[in-house]
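Example (one chain per record):
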Amino acid sequence: MKVDDMTIDEKIGQILMVGFPSSDYDDHIDELVTKYKIGNVILFSRNVEDKYQLANLNNEIQKNVIKHTKIPAFISIDQEGGMVTRIYKGATYLPGNMAIAATADAENAYKIGEIAGRELRALGININFAPVLDVNNNPSNPVIGVRSYSEEPEKVAEFGVNYIKGLQKENVIATAKHFPGHGDTSTDSHLDLPIVVHDKERLYNVELYPFKKAVENDVDAIMSAHILFTAFEDEKLPATLSYKILTNLLREQLKFEGIIMTDCMEMNAIAKYFGTAKAASMAIKAGADMVLVSHTRDLQIDAFNEIKRSVLSGDIPEKRIDESVKRILRMKQKYKLFDKPYANMDEVGNVVGNREHLAIAEEISRKSITIVKDENELIPIKNTNILVVSPDPAVLTGADNRLMDKISFAKAFVKRFGDQYKIIPINPDDTFINSILNYAEDKKLIVIGTYNANLNEGQCKLVNSLLKLNCNIIVVALRNPYDLLKFKDVSTYVCTYEYTPISIESVLDALEGKFMPSGKLPVSI
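Predicted structure:
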Protein backbone atom coordinates (compact mmCIF):
# COMPACT_ATOMS: atom_id res chain seq x y z
CA MET A 1 0.00 0.00 0.00
CA LYS A 2 1.21 3.53 -0.83
CA VAL A 3 1.12 6.22 1.84
CA ASP A 4 -0.50 8.66 -0.63
CA ASP A 5 -3.51 6.34 -0.92
CA MET A 6 -4.08 6.15 2.86
CA THR A 7 -6.58 8.18 4.88
CA ILE A 8 -5.52 10.18 7.96
CA ASP A 9 -7.14 7.51 10.16
CA GLU A 10 -5.21 4.72 8.45
CA LYS A 11 -1.93 6.61 8.86
CA ILE A 12 -2.51 7.28 12.56
CA GLY A 13 -3.47 3.60 12.97
CA GLN A 14 0.02 2.67 11.72
CA ILE A 15 1.69 5.04 14.20
CA LEU A 16 -0.11 3.76 17.30
CA MET A 17 0.69 0.51 19.10
CA VAL A 18 -1.80 -0.69 21.72
CA GLY A 19 -2.31 -3.39 24.32
CA PHE A 20 -5.50 -5.08 25.52
CA PRO A 21 -6.39 -7.06 28.65
CA SER A 22 -7.27 -10.63 27.73
CA SER A 23 -5.87 -13.87 26.33
CA ASP A 24 -8.29 -13.88 23.40
CA TYR A 25 -9.14 -11.41 20.66
CA ASP A 26 -11.62 -9.38 22.72
CA ASP A 27 -13.99 -6.43 22.13
CA HIS A 28 -11.35 -3.95 23.29
CA ILE A 29 -8.81 -4.77 20.56
CA ASP A 30 -11.55 -5.44 17.99
CA GLU A 31 -12.97 -1.93 18.42
CA LEU A 32 -9.52 -0.34 18.03
CA VAL A 33 -8.78 -2.34 14.88
CA THR A 34 -12.19 -2.04 13.19
CA LYS A 35 -13.16 1.52 14.15
CA TYR A 36 -9.78 3.21 14.53
CA LYS A 37 -7.68 1.17 12.07
CA ILE A 38 -5.00 0.52 14.70
CA GLY A 39 -2.27 -1.57 13.04
CA ASN A 40 0.08 -2.63 15.85
CA VAL A 41 -0.21 -4.53 19.14
CA ILE A 42 1.89 -5.01 22.28
CA LEU A 43 1.42 -8.22 24.28
CA PHE A 44 1.94 -8.72 28.03
CA SER A 45 1.83 -11.82 30.22
CA ARG A 46 -1.90 -11.15 30.72
CA ASN A 47 -2.34 -12.10 27.03
CA VAL A 48 -0.38 -15.36 27.34
CA GLU A 49 -1.63 -18.72 28.60
CA ASP A 50 0.59 -21.12 26.65
CA LYS A 51 2.39 -21.23 23.33
CA TYR A 52 -0.50 -22.67 21.28
CA GLN A 53 -3.04 -20.19 22.64
CA LEU A 54 -0.56 -17.35 21.97
CA ALA A 55 0.08 -18.43 18.38
CA ASN A 56 -3.67 -18.65 17.74
CA LEU A 57 -4.21 -15.22 19.32
CA ASN A 58 -1.51 -13.67 17.13
CA ASN A 59 -3.07 -15.22 14.02
CA GLU A 60 -6.44 -13.81 15.03
CA ILE A 61 -4.88 -10.35 15.50
CA GLN A 62 -3.16 -10.52 12.10
CA LYS A 63 -6.26 -11.78 10.31
CA ASN A 64 -8.37 -8.88 11.64
CA VAL A 65 -5.72 -6.18 11.22
CA ILE A 66 -5.09 -7.23 7.60
CA LYS A 67 -8.83 -7.38 6.93
CA HIS A 68 -9.45 -3.84 8.22
CA THR A 69 -6.21 -2.03 7.30
CA LYS A 70 -4.84 -4.12 4.36
CA ILE A 71 -1.46 -4.03 6.17
CA PRO A 72 -0.01 -6.72 8.49
CA ALA A 73 0.47 -5.81 12.13
CA PHE A 74 3.58 -5.34 14.17
CA ILE A 75 3.03 -7.65 17.14
CA SER A 76 5.49 -6.87 19.93
CA ILE A 77 6.42 -8.09 23.40
CA ASP A 78 8.98 -7.46 26.17
CA GLN A 79 10.76 -10.83 26.12
CA GLU A 80 14.03 -9.56 27.60
CA GLY A 81 14.81 -12.82 29.41
CA GLY A 82 15.49 -13.16 33.13
CA MET A 83 13.19 -11.06 35.30
CA VAL A 84 11.28 -9.53 32.36
CA THR A 85 9.83 -12.58 30.63
CA ARG A 86 6.25 -12.57 29.33
CA ILE A 87 6.13 -16.07 27.77
CA TYR A 88 7.28 -18.83 30.06
CA LYS A 89 4.91 -21.79 29.58
CA GLY A 90 6.19 -24.03 26.82
CA ALA A 91 8.78 -21.54 25.53
CA THR A 92 12.48 -21.56 26.42
CA TYR A 93 13.11 -19.60 29.61
CA LEU A 94 16.13 -17.49 28.64
CA PRO A 95 18.70 -15.93 30.99
CA GLY A 96 18.57 -12.13 31.30
CA ASN A 97 21.24 -9.60 30.35
CA MET A 98 23.40 -9.45 33.46
CA ALA A 99 23.44 -13.24 33.74
CA ILE A 100 24.56 -13.48 30.09
CA ALA A 101 27.30 -10.88 30.68
CA ALA A 102 28.50 -12.82 33.76
CA THR A 103 29.52 -15.66 31.39
CA ALA A 104 32.12 -13.20 30.01
CA ASP A 105 31.45 -14.53 26.49
CA ALA A 106 29.54 -12.21 24.13
CA GLU A 107 28.84 -15.15 21.79
CA ASN A 108 26.27 -16.23 24.39
CA ALA A 109 24.32 -13.02 23.78
CA TYR A 110 24.14 -13.92 20.08
CA LYS A 111 22.92 -17.45 20.89
CA ILE A 112 20.20 -16.11 23.23
CA GLY A 113 19.12 -13.52 20.64
CA GLU A 114 18.92 -16.22 18.00
CA ILE A 115 16.76 -18.53 20.17
CA ALA A 116 14.50 -15.63 21.20
CA GLY A 117 14.07 -14.62 17.54
CA ARG A 118 13.38 -18.13 16.33
CA GLU A 119 10.74 -18.79 19.00
CA LEU A 120 9.04 -15.38 18.82
CA ARG A 121 8.74 -15.46 15.03
CA ALA A 122 7.31 -19.00 15.15
CA LEU A 123 4.69 -17.64 17.59
CA GLY A 124 3.79 -14.78 15.24
CA ILE A 125 5.65 -12.02 17.12
CA ASN A 126 7.83 -9.77 14.98
CA ILE A 127 9.18 -7.10 17.40
CA ASN A 128 10.98 -7.77 20.66
CA PHE A 129 11.42 -4.82 23.01
CA ALA A 130 14.99 -5.92 23.76
CA PRO A 131 17.86 -5.56 24.38
CA VAL A 132 18.16 -3.11 27.27
CA LEU A 133 21.26 -1.05 26.43
CA ASP A 134 21.24 1.00 29.62
CA VAL A 135 24.60 1.11 31.41
CA ASN A 136 23.78 0.22 35.01
CA ASN A 137 26.34 2.32 36.87
CA ASN A 138 24.02 3.22 39.77
CA PRO A 139 23.59 0.42 42.37
CA SER A 140 20.45 2.21 43.65
CA ASN A 141 18.71 2.06 40.26
CA PRO A 142 15.26 0.64 41.08
CA VAL A 143 14.14 -0.30 37.56
CA ILE A 144 17.15 -1.41 35.45
CA GLY A 145 19.62 -3.34 37.65
CA VAL A 146 20.08 -6.86 36.24
CA ARG A 147 18.19 -5.92 33.07
CA SER A 148 21.46 -4.23 32.04
CA TYR A 149 24.49 -6.19 30.85
CA SER A 150 27.02 -4.24 32.87
CA GLU A 151 28.26 -0.94 34.28
CA GLU A 152 30.85 -0.76 31.46
CA PRO A 153 29.62 0.90 28.23
CA GLU A 154 31.91 -1.23 26.03
CA LYS A 155 30.61 -4.47 27.54
CA VAL A 156 26.97 -3.34 27.22
CA ALA A 157 27.64 -2.47 23.56
CA GLU A 158 29.44 -5.75 22.77
CA PHE A 159 26.80 -8.02 24.33
CA GLY A 160 23.88 -5.86 23.11
CA VAL A 161 25.07 -5.77 19.49
CA ASN A 162 25.52 -9.56 19.50
CA TYR A 163 21.98 -10.04 20.84
CA ILE A 164 20.61 -7.65 18.16
CA LYS A 165 22.38 -9.61 15.39
CA GLY A 166 21.03 -12.94 16.65
CA LEU A 167 17.46 -11.67 17.00
CA GLN A 168 17.28 -9.80 13.67
CA LYS A 169 18.84 -12.74 11.79
CA GLU A 170 15.67 -14.66 12.73
CA ASN A 171 13.41 -11.91 11.31
CA VAL A 172 12.40 -10.29 14.58
CA ILE A 173 13.08 -6.56 15.01
CA ALA A 174 15.35 -5.74 17.94
CA THR A 175 14.57 -2.61 19.96
CA ALA A 176 17.48 -0.97 21.77
CA LYS A 177 16.16 0.71 24.91
CA HIS A 178 15.85 3.10 26.79
CA PHE A 179 17.46 5.91 24.74
CA PRO A 180 19.52 7.89 25.70
CA GLY A 181 20.01 5.73 28.83
CA HIS A 182 18.12 4.80 32.02
CA GLY A 183 21.14 3.37 33.87
CA ASP A 184 22.10 6.22 36.19
CA THR A 185 18.73 7.03 37.71
CA SER A 186 17.32 6.38 41.17
CA THR A 187 13.70 6.85 40.06
CA ASP A 188 11.52 4.37 38.15
CA SER A 189 9.93 6.21 35.19
CA HIS A 190 6.84 3.99 35.63
CA LEU A 191 6.30 5.98 38.84
CA ASP A 192 7.78 9.45 38.27
CA LEU A 193 9.99 11.56 35.99
CA PRO A 194 13.72 10.81 36.49
CA ILE A 195 16.33 13.51 35.82
CA VAL A 196 19.90 12.92 34.59
CA VAL A 197 22.22 15.92 35.04
CA HIS A 198 25.49 14.61 33.53
CA ASP A 199 27.24 16.81 30.98
CA LYS A 200 27.37 15.96 27.28
CA GLU A 201 30.92 14.58 27.35
CA ARG A 202 30.01 12.03 30.04
CA LEU A 203 26.74 11.09 28.23
CA TYR A 204 28.55 10.52 24.91
CA ASN A 205 31.21 8.36 26.59
CA VAL A 206 28.91 6.29 28.81
CA GLU A 207 25.12 6.37 28.30
CA LEU A 208 25.09 6.95 24.53
CA TYR A 209 27.98 4.65 23.64
CA PRO A 210 25.98 1.35 23.39
CA PHE A 211 23.23 3.06 21.34
CA LYS A 212 25.81 4.52 18.96
CA LYS A 213 27.27 1.02 18.45
CA ALA A 214 23.78 -0.46 17.97
CA VAL A 215 23.02 2.11 15.24
CA GLU A 216 26.36 1.34 13.54
CA ASN A 217 25.35 -2.36 13.59
CA ASP A 218 21.90 -1.81 12.01
CA VAL A 219 19.50 -2.09 14.92
CA ASP A 220 16.07 -1.47 13.39
CA ALA A 221 14.20 0.10 16.34
CA ILE A 222 15.13 2.26 19.31
CA MET A 223 12.82 2.99 22.27
CA SER A 224 12.97 6.35 24.00
CA ALA A 225 13.25 6.88 27.78
CA HIS A 226 10.83 9.06 29.72
CA ILE A 227 13.78 10.84 31.35
CA LEU A 228 14.82 14.49 31.46
CA PHE A 229 18.42 15.00 30.25
CA THR A 230 19.40 18.54 31.19
CA ALA A 231 22.53 18.52 28.97
CA PHE A 232 20.42 18.07 25.82
CA GLU A 233 17.08 19.62 26.73
CA ASP A 234 16.52 22.91 28.60
CA GLU A 235 12.73 22.92 28.20
CA LYS A 236 12.04 20.32 30.94
CA LEU A 237 10.92 17.80 28.33
CA PRO A 238 11.76 14.10 28.79
CA ALA A 239 13.62 12.40 25.90
CA THR A 240 10.36 10.94 24.51
CA LEU A 241 9.00 14.47 23.93
CA SER A 242 12.25 16.19 23.00
CA TYR A 243 12.93 17.21 19.38
CA LYS A 244 16.52 17.94 20.40
CA ILE A 245 16.99 14.31 21.56
CA LEU A 246 14.87 12.29 19.11
CA THR A 247 15.52 14.32 15.95
CA ASN A 248 18.69 16.40 16.47
CA LEU A 249 20.61 13.77 18.45
CA LEU A 250 19.29 10.36 17.37
CA ARG A 251 18.25 11.01 13.76
CA GLU A 252 20.72 13.69 12.67
CA GLN A 253 23.83 13.19 14.81
CA LEU A 254 23.78 9.42 15.30
CA LYS A 255 22.30 8.85 11.80
CA PHE A 256 19.64 6.38 12.96
CA GLU A 257 17.30 5.43 10.11
CA GLY A 258 15.09 2.83 11.80
CA ILE A 259 11.89 3.20 13.84
CA ILE A 260 11.88 5.47 16.88
CA MET A 261 9.45 3.96 19.37
CA THR A 262 8.18 5.57 22.57
CA ASP A 263 8.01 3.70 25.84
CA CYS A 264 4.44 3.41 27.14
CA MET A 265 2.73 6.79 27.36
CA GLU A 266 0.68 5.67 30.36
CA MET A 267 3.77 5.60 32.60
CA ASN A 268 3.67 8.26 35.31
CA ALA A 269 6.74 10.11 34.00
CA ILE A 270 4.51 11.09 31.04
CA ALA A 271 0.89 10.73 32.22
CA LYS A 272 1.34 12.70 35.45
CA TYR A 273 3.12 15.72 33.91
CA PHE A 274 1.86 15.93 30.32
CA GLY A 275 -1.19 13.67 29.97
CA THR A 276 -1.07 10.51 27.81
CA ALA A 277 -3.08 11.83 24.83
CA LYS A 278 -1.38 15.24 24.59
CA ALA A 279 2.03 13.61 24.99
CA ALA A 280 1.28 11.19 22.12
CA SER A 281 0.98 14.19 19.83
CA MET A 282 4.08 15.86 21.33
CA ALA A 283 6.16 12.69 20.80
CA ILE A 284 5.33 12.64 17.07
CA LYS A 285 6.29 16.31 16.76
CA ALA A 286 9.56 15.47 18.52
CA GLY A 287 10.33 12.75 15.95
CA ALA A 288 8.85 9.50 17.28
CA ASP A 289 7.52 7.13 14.60
CA MET A 290 5.44 4.88 16.83
CA VAL A 291 3.58 5.72 20.02
CA LEU A 292 2.92 3.06 22.61
CA VAL A 293 -0.30 3.16 24.71
CA SER A 294 -0.27 -0.21 26.43
CA HIS A 295 -3.31 -0.61 28.62
CA THR A 296 -6.34 1.69 28.77
CA ARG A 297 -8.97 1.75 26.00
CA ASP A 298 -10.09 5.34 26.68
CA LEU A 299 -6.51 6.66 26.65
CA GLN A 300 -5.80 4.78 23.41
CA ILE A 301 -8.84 6.39 21.76
CA ASP A 302 -7.94 9.80 23.26
CA ALA A 303 -4.41 9.50 21.85
CA PHE A 304 -5.82 8.65 18.39
CA ASN A 305 -8.19 11.64 18.52
CA GLU A 306 -5.52 14.04 19.81
CA ILE A 307 -3.07 13.06 17.04
CA LYS A 308 -5.84 13.46 14.46
CA ARG A 309 -6.82 16.86 15.85
CA SER A 310 -3.15 17.97 15.73
CA VAL A 311 -2.81 16.88 12.08
CA LEU A 312 -6.10 18.48 10.96
CA SER A 313 -5.24 21.76 12.73
CA GLY A 314 -1.80 21.83 11.11
CA ASP A 315 -0.02 21.57 14.46
CA ILE A 316 1.58 18.36 13.13
CA PRO A 317 2.24 18.65 9.37
CA GLU A 318 0.85 15.64 7.49
CA LYS A 319 4.30 15.32 5.90
CA ARG A 320 5.69 14.50 9.41
CA ILE A 321 3.14 11.66 9.76
CA ASP A 322 3.92 10.43 6.23
CA GLU A 323 7.66 10.14 7.03
CA SER A 324 6.89 7.79 9.94
CA VAL A 325 4.31 5.73 8.06
CA LYS A 326 6.75 5.21 5.16
CA ARG A 327 9.40 4.06 7.65
CA ILE A 328 6.93 1.64 9.29
CA LEU A 329 5.74 0.18 5.98
CA ARG A 330 9.33 -0.25 4.78
CA MET A 331 10.17 -2.12 7.96
CA LYS A 332 7.10 -4.36 7.64
CA GLN A 333 8.29 -5.18 4.14
CA LYS A 334 11.91 -5.76 5.21
CA TYR A 335 10.77 -8.27 7.84
CA LYS A 336 8.58 -10.12 5.30
CA LEU A 337 5.31 -9.40 7.08
CA PHE A 338 3.45 -9.01 3.81
CA ASP A 339 4.57 -12.55 2.85
CA LYS A 340 4.57 -14.33 6.24
CA PRO A 341 2.53 -12.49 8.85
CA TYR A 342 1.20 -15.55 10.70
CA ALA A 343 2.45 -17.88 13.41
CA ASN A 344 3.66 -21.22 12.05
CA MET A 345 1.84 -23.97 13.97
CA ASP A 346 4.34 -26.69 12.98
CA GLU A 347 7.19 -24.56 14.32
CA VAL A 348 5.25 -23.77 17.50
CA GLY A 349 5.33 -27.50 18.21
CA ASN A 350 8.87 -28.23 16.99
CA VAL A 351 10.84 -25.04 17.65
CA VAL A 352 9.34 -23.24 20.65
CA GLY A 353 10.84 -24.65 23.84
CA ASN A 354 12.61 -27.51 22.04
CA ARG A 355 15.31 -29.62 23.69
CA GLU A 356 18.20 -27.95 21.87
CA HIS A 357 17.12 -24.45 22.95
CA LEU A 358 16.57 -25.57 26.55
CA ALA A 359 20.06 -27.15 26.66
CA ILE A 360 21.74 -23.94 25.40
CA ALA A 361 19.79 -21.79 27.90
CA GLU A 362 20.73 -24.16 30.74
CA GLU A 363 24.40 -24.16 29.79
CA ILE A 364 24.53 -20.35 29.67
CA SER A 365 22.66 -20.11 32.98
CA ARG A 366 25.21 -22.44 34.64
CA LYS A 367 28.10 -20.39 33.22
CA SER A 368 26.58 -17.24 34.75
CA ILE A 369 26.59 -18.45 38.37
CA THR A 370 29.27 -16.43 40.17
CA ILE A 371 31.00 -17.32 43.43
CA VAL A 372 32.25 -13.89 44.52
CA LYS A 373 33.91 -15.35 47.61
CA ASP A 374 33.93 -18.55 49.67
CA GLU A 375 36.37 -17.82 52.50
CA ASN A 376 35.13 -20.61 54.79
CA GLU A 377 34.93 -23.14 51.92
CA LEU A 378 31.25 -23.82 52.46
CA ILE A 379 30.69 -24.87 48.81
CA PRO A 380 29.96 -27.63 47.93
CA ILE A 381 27.57 -27.99 50.88
CA LYS A 382 28.57 -30.85 53.18
CA ASN A 383 26.63 -29.91 56.32
CA THR A 384 23.34 -31.15 57.60
CA ASN A 385 21.26 -29.19 60.14
CA ILE A 386 20.79 -26.23 57.77
CA LEU A 387 18.35 -23.32 57.90
CA VAL A 388 17.55 -21.76 54.51
CA VAL A 389 15.74 -18.43 54.32
CA SER A 390 14.51 -16.45 51.29
CA PRO A 391 11.72 -14.18 50.12
CA ASP A 392 9.54 -15.34 47.27
CA PRO A 393 10.08 -13.34 44.06
CA ALA A 394 8.07 -10.13 43.97
CA VAL A 395 7.17 -7.53 41.36
CA LEU A 396 9.64 -4.71 42.05
CA THR A 397 9.22 -2.52 38.95
CA GLY A 398 6.60 -1.62 36.38
CA ALA A 399 8.59 -3.68 33.87
CA ASP A 400 8.25 -6.88 35.93
CA ASN A 401 4.52 -6.85 35.03
CA ARG A 402 3.56 -10.26 36.39
CA LEU A 403 5.84 -12.99 37.64
CA MET A 404 6.00 -16.55 36.44
CA ASP A 405 4.44 -19.38 38.47
CA LYS A 406 5.48 -18.94 42.09
CA ILE A 407 8.96 -20.30 42.65
CA SER A 408 10.83 -20.33 45.93
CA PHE A 409 14.56 -20.62 46.41
CA ALA A 410 14.10 -21.76 50.04
CA LYS A 411 11.59 -24.50 49.16
CA ALA A 412 13.66 -25.71 46.19
CA PHE A 413 16.77 -25.82 48.40
CA VAL A 414 15.06 -27.94 51.07
CA LYS A 415 13.68 -30.27 48.42
CA ARG A 416 17.26 -30.85 47.28
CA PHE A 417 19.19 -30.79 50.60
CA GLY A 418 16.54 -31.43 53.28
CA ASP A 419 16.39 -29.51 56.61
CA GLN A 420 14.36 -26.42 57.46
CA TYR A 421 13.21 -23.36 55.48
CA LYS A 422 11.52 -20.06 56.27
CA ILE A 423 9.98 -17.61 53.78
CA ILE A 424 10.60 -13.96 54.66
CA PRO A 425 8.99 -10.73 53.42
CA ILE A 426 10.99 -8.50 51.05
CA ASN A 427 11.53 -6.10 53.94
CA PRO A 428 11.22 -8.06 57.23
CA ASP A 429 10.59 -6.09 60.43
CA ASP A 430 12.31 -6.60 63.80
CA THR A 431 9.69 -9.08 65.03
CA PHE A 432 10.17 -11.25 61.96
CA ILE A 433 13.97 -11.00 62.19
CA ASN A 434 13.88 -12.11 65.85
CA SER A 435 11.73 -15.13 64.98
CA ILE A 436 14.29 -16.19 62.32
CA LEU A 437 17.14 -15.74 64.84
CA ASN A 438 15.36 -18.17 67.19
CA TYR A 439 15.21 -20.82 64.45
CA ALA A 440 18.86 -20.23 63.55
CA GLU A 441 20.39 -20.67 67.01
CA ASP A 442 21.44 -24.34 66.80
CA LYS A 443 22.08 -24.56 63.03
CA LYS A 444 25.46 -25.56 61.58
CA LEU A 445 24.89 -23.68 58.30
CA ILE A 446 22.58 -20.86 57.29
CA VAL A 447 21.78 -20.21 53.62
CA ILE A 448 20.06 -16.90 52.80
CA GLY A 449 18.59 -15.99 49.43
CA THR A 450 18.47 -12.18 49.19
CA TYR A 451 16.36 -10.22 46.71
CA ASN A 452 17.64 -6.68 46.15
CA ALA A 453 18.69 -6.48 49.81
CA ASN A 454 20.72 -3.36 48.94
CA LEU A 455 17.37 -1.56 48.45
CA ASN A 456 15.53 -3.33 51.32
CA GLU A 457 17.02 -2.57 54.72
CA GLY A 458 15.14 -5.35 56.56
CA GLN A 459 16.97 -8.06 54.61
CA CYS A 460 20.34 -6.43 55.39
CA LYS A 461 19.48 -6.26 59.09
CA LEU A 462 18.54 -9.96 59.03
CA VAL A 463 21.84 -11.01 57.40
CA ASN A 464 23.92 -8.88 59.77
CA SER A 465 22.02 -10.22 62.81
CA LEU A 466 22.57 -13.82 61.66
CA LEU A 467 26.29 -13.12 61.17
CA LYS A 468 26.58 -12.35 64.89
CA LEU A 469 25.08 -15.77 65.58
CA ASN A 470 26.93 -17.93 63.06
CA CYS A 471 29.91 -17.29 60.78
CA ASN A 472 28.90 -20.17 58.45
CA ILE A 473 26.52 -18.28 56.20
CA ILE A 474 26.06 -18.58 52.44
CA VAL A 475 24.32 -15.58 50.86
CA VAL A 476 22.83 -16.21 47.42
CA ALA A 477 21.90 -12.91 45.72
CA LEU A 478 18.79 -13.77 43.71
CA ARG A 479 18.60 -10.52 41.73
CA ASN A 480 20.93 -7.49 42.06
CA PRO A 481 24.55 -8.45 42.78
CA TYR A 482 25.02 -5.29 44.87
CA ASP A 483 23.62 -6.83 48.09
CA LEU A 484 27.15 -7.59 49.36
CA LEU A 485 27.72 -3.84 49.82
CA LYS A 486 25.43 -4.09 52.86
CA PHE A 487 27.07 -7.07 54.60
CA LYS A 488 30.72 -7.25 53.59
CA ASP A 489 31.69 -9.62 56.41
CA VAL A 490 29.73 -12.56 55.01
CA SER A 491 32.20 -15.34 54.12
CA THR A 492 30.41 -16.91 51.12
CA TYR A 493 28.58 -14.87 48.51
CA VAL A 494 27.04 -16.23 45.29
CA CYS A 495 25.25 -14.29 42.50
CA THR A 496 22.53 -15.65 40.20
CA TYR A 497 21.43 -12.25 38.70
CA GLU A 498 17.81 -13.40 38.46
CA TYR A 499 15.17 -15.24 40.48
CA THR A 500 13.89 -17.64 37.84
CA PRO A 501 13.33 -21.42 37.58
CA ILE A 502 16.44 -21.84 35.41
CA SER A 503 18.75 -19.83 37.70
CA ILE A 504 17.53 -21.66 40.84
CA GLU A 505 18.33 -25.03 39.25
CA SER A 506 21.76 -23.75 38.21
CA VAL A 507 22.69 -22.33 41.62
CA LEU A 508 21.47 -25.44 43.47
CA ASP A 509 23.61 -27.61 41.18
CA ALA A 510 26.57 -25.34 42.01
CA LEU A 511 25.93 -25.54 45.76
CA GLU A 512 25.72 -29.32 45.47
CA GLY A 513 29.08 -29.41 43.68
CA LYS A 514 27.73 -30.73 40.35
CA PHE A 515 29.88 -28.14 38.54
CA MET A 516 32.41 -25.44 39.38
CA PRO A 517 30.88 -21.99 38.72
CA SER A 518 32.93 -19.81 36.37
CA GLY A 519 30.78 -16.63 36.28
CA LYS A 520 32.43 -13.21 36.65
CA LEU A 521 30.83 -10.08 38.10
CA PRO A 522 29.86 -7.63 35.30
CA VAL A 523 29.67 -4.79 37.89
CA SER A 524 31.94 -3.57 40.70
CA ILE A 525 31.08 -4.37 44.29
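Caption: The chain has two domains: 18-350, 369-512.
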